[in-house]
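The records we work with from here on pair a chain with its fold. Here is one such record, which you should read through line by line:
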Amino acid sequence: MAILQGKKAIIIGDRDGIPGPAIAACAESAGAEVVFSSTECFV
């Protein structure tokens, strides 16, 4: 059973924290379809 099965996700990671591709990989393994992934700098 995947928690996010059939859901679409927009991923915004943080440069000094967890980057977008890492969060996207977790979301995809939980069943989500990642439609956008980015890593931003929030200063």
Notes: The longest helix spans residues 20-29. The longest strand covers residues 33-40. The chain has a mean pLDDT of 93.
